[in-house]
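Incident log, support desk, overnight shift.

02:14 A customer reports that sequence design results differ from what the structure should imply. Their input is reproduced verbatim below. On-call engineer (initials T.W.) acknowledged and began investigating.
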């Protein structure tokens, strides 16, 4: 028996039964938290209560002296006409590593019957689990998703997970079937702290749906763990329910539920017991005709309004109040200003669901059909899951923030860290409005009157400058991001609103004791950076960020009529670029020339992070020195993305990337020594952070020198692709994704310092790199440098596909817009071929424009 996949949902990657263990596909809206669909069809990692909660499953384990087992799962009842009924959990078989005995099991309810055969299929955010078993008269396909529509952050930010159960009857007799969802009302705990208190479940109906609404009458409404949850099913089936389970000793609560459900697929409600965390159950019963399929759709929604600030110390209940004189640690959630409670979420989502699904599937299908390598599609698309994880959130004013990543139970490295978020490209290319709020925070709130930008933003926003330390790479990267986002938007008002902060942040380089106090276009000063230490002396990593910032500032200043400042930036750029090529390039790659600064008093205030860098400034530890660094050309990576051209000699850039492949790429890590964190190991291929092929390694190099981190690997790979080293770049990307194969690690959780690490969204940059896509709303230009094919494009507010076909002396172009609208005055192909339009060409959503271009000889 087998069940086919949803024919309208694209599938990018499939995982067999041996590669399901680590799969966890996050479901939820941007800035709302998630619950994850596990590889065997279970729901895991319930991270919906304002913080991470890896491994948290509501209702798992003990409740006082009553052993309850697990009470959060979906189950199937199936009875073929004339046959005995079957009841089974809607999950594949447990992996042996998930079970070590009753108390040592990592999986709840190990004793539940499950399907023998299971596979997982995905094209994020679309996940499908296929279940079959010769002893079960129905095959099941679980279709799980949440809306994800580029350019529409609100519809992509609904706190909902949609779970559709497609039941297929391949037999010649009808089957009576029922799907039951069970969820403990865990309001009051977030998986690592707190407890439920007098929680209540109530059955509700509304237009198009029935469900269980979960609230608490005991948890303080000011607690960050207070909120509401809803489990609902769309109308069509016969619905029965329980608002609580029996409160018997030992495992009898589960036994009582199972006996009730397995008897006829329906539920009889129980009288509420003394339990503070009652279990709600919702059963939807349907007939499944012979040789036919029937779908039952559940929605899970949540609403937890009291998010607190970055402070890792938990607030007390009375300190989280959003009412009256709000205390300084309350920041709230944007999504909870849009919806009244969790029931309001499902009520408003159900009528929109067909359109939301159509647009989500349309985006994913169009992206997957583009002529990009499969591994690039997977790396770019699957890392978008980070936007939905607890790594990211939106405060009540709609501004978008991010941790660097997530530890199991709390965010990791707070403050929308500029030097980490510099690398990612998914947010600006898919949700321009969210990216622009980050630029607003950086330049209009985190940058002080002297131009020092706090590289971590303390919240609430009136505390944005309290961190008081600037990162050289973070600050320069933000200047480049301001240019990128202005170009993508074409909005001069946006540029003008940022420009004073942009200019001050660049001028800060030149303060006495600063990064470039002698104004020669080269950073020599104390440079705190993304390696969490300070470099002393000129180096390629900070140097290319600085050169890129000078070029970006030059262009912005010239556009605003500040020609003198633009000329100054140009002069510094040219001098710094020539000096770097002449002095740091060693014939293979660019080195760091260490220049100690023994007099700490000569270092400008705010440049040195005293707790993390070198203590002896006359012979500083934690330097790069003569090493070949994986992302030494990170500024060039960003310059190509921005269309700013070369920052250094092109031949040196190519040679450096060749050296990174030669010296840093490893086919296997067996025998590799790493004294720090291990994100890759054994026989896995990877690009090392730094190597010392010419010797001269500092006794104590920067801490992460022996590590492997995917965001840096993507940066190097994209740099290679821009330089025509496509095979090498793809090899690097393939090596990364092989490590996230479902068995070893989740394909939707590329880790660095924490789960769902923001830097890994650098993977999206491979999309424009391979297509040669560049868009300037300022100039009204759209450009592709790739050859014939179908190329996906997006600029943060619109998206579509450009199809290019060469015919003799002409090239036919079909420029389609699938979402948003596009206005251009010029279309360009790589090699100089361009078409100027007599009047602006406007293409609306769902439309396309076809035109012919003469090809140059």
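02:41 Re-run completed on a clean worker. Output:
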């Amino acid at each position: 028996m087998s069940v086919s996949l949803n024919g309208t949902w694209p599938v990018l990657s499939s995982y067999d039964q041996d590669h399901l263990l680590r799969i966890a596909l996050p479901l939820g809206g941007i800035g709302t938290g998630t619950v994850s669909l596990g590889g065997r069809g279970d729901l895991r990692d319930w991270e919906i209560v304002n913080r991470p909660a890896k491994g948290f499953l509501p209702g798992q384990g003990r409740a006082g002296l009553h052993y309850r087992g697990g009470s959060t799962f979906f189950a199937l009842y199936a009875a073929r006409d004339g046959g005995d009924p079957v009841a089974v959990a809607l999950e594949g078989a447990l992996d042996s590593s998930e079970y070590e005995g009753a108390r040592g099991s990592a999986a709840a309810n190990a004793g539940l019957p499950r399907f023998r055969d299971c596979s997982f299929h995905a094209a994020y955010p679309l996940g499908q689990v296929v279940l079959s078993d010769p002893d079960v008269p129905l095959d099941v396909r679980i279709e799980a998703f949440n809306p994800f529509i580029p350019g529409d952050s609100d519809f992509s930010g609904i706190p909902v997970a949609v779970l559709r159960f497609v039941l297929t009857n391949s037999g010649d007799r009808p089957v009576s079937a029922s799907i039951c969802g069970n969820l403990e009302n865990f309001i009051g705990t977030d998986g690592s702290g707190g407890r439920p208190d007098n929680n209540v479940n109530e059955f509700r109906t509304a237009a198009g749906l029935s469900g269980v609404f979960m609230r608490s009458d005991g948890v303080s409404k000011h607690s960050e763990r207070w909120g509401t949850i809803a489990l609902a099913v769309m109308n069509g089936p016969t619905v029965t329910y329980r608002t609580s389970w029996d409160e018997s000793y030992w495992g009898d609560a589960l036994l009582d539920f199972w006996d009730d459900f397995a008897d006829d697929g329906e539920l009889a409600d129980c009288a509420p017991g003394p339990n503070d965390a009652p279990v709600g159950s919702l059963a939807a019963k349907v007939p499944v005709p012979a040789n036919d399929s029937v779908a039952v759709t559940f929605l899970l929604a949540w609403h937890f309004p009291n998010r607190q600030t970055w402070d890792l110390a938990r607030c007390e209940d009375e300190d989280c109040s959003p009412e009256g004189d709000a205390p300084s640690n309350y920041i709230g959630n944007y999504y909870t200003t849009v919806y009244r409670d969790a029931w309001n979420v499902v009520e408003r989502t159900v009528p929109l669901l067909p359109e939301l699904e159509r647009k989500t599937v349309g985006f994913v299908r169009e992206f997957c059909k583009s002529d990009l390598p499969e591994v690039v599609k997977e790396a770019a698309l699957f890392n978008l899951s980070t936007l939905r994880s607890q790594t990211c959130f939106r405060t009540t004013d709609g501004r978008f923030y991010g941790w660097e990543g997530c530890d199991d139970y709390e965010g990791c490295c707070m403050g929308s860290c500029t030097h980490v978020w510099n690398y990612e490209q998914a947010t600006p290319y898919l949700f321009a409005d969210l990216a622009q709020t980050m630029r607003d925070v950086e330049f209009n709130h985190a940058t002080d009157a002297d131009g020092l930008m706090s590289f971590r933003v303390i919240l609430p926003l009136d505390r944005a400058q309290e961190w008081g330390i600037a990162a050289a790479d973070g600050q320069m990267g933000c200047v480049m991001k301001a240019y990128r986002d202005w170009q993508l938007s074409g909005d001069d008002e946006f540029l003008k609103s940022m420009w004073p902060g942009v200019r001050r942040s660049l001028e800060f380089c030149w303060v006495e004791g600063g990064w470039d106090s002698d104004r020669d276009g080269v950073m020599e000063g104390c440079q705190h950076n993304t390696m969490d230490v300070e470099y002393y002396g000129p180096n390629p990593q900070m140097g290319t960020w600085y050169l890129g910032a000078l070029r970006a500032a030059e262009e912005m200043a010239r556009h605003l009529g500040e020609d003198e400042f633009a000329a100054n930036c140009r002069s510094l750029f040219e001098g710094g670029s020539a000096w770097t090529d002449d002095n740091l390039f060693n014939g293979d790659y660019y080195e760091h020339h260490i220049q100690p600064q023994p007099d700490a008093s000569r270092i400008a205030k705010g440049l040195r992070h005293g707790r993390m860098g070198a203590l002896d400034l006359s012979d500083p530890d934690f330097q790069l020195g003569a090493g070949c660094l994986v992302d030494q050309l990170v500024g060039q990576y960003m310059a190509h993305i921005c269309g700013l051209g070369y920052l250094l000699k092109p031949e040196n850039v190519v040679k450096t990337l060749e050296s990174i492949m030669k010296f840093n790429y490893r086919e296997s890590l067996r025998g590799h020594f790493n004294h720090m964190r291990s994100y890759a190991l054994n026989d896995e291929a990877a690009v090392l952070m730094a190597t010392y092929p010419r010797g001269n390694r500092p006794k104590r190099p920067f801490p992460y020198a022996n590590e492997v981190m995917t965001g840096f690997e993507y940066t190097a790979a994209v740099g290679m692709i821009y330089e025509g080293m496509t095979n090498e770049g793809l090899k690097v990307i393939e090596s990364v994704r092989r490590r996230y194969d479902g068995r070893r690690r989740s394909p939707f959780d590329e880790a660095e310092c924490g789960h769902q690490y923001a830097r890994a969204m650098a993977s999206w940059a491979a999309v424009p790199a391979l297509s040669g896509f560049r868009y300037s709303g300022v100039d009204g230009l759209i450009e592709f440098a790739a050859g014939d094919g179908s190329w996906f494009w997006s600029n943060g507010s619109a998206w579509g596909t450009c199809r290019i076909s060469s015919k003799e002396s002409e090239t036919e172009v079909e420029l389609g817009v699938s979402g948003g609208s596009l206005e251009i005055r010029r279309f360009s192909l790589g090699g100089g071929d361009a078409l100027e339009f007599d009047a602006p060409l406007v293409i609306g959503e769902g439309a396309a424009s076809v035109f012919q271009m003469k090809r140059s000889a």
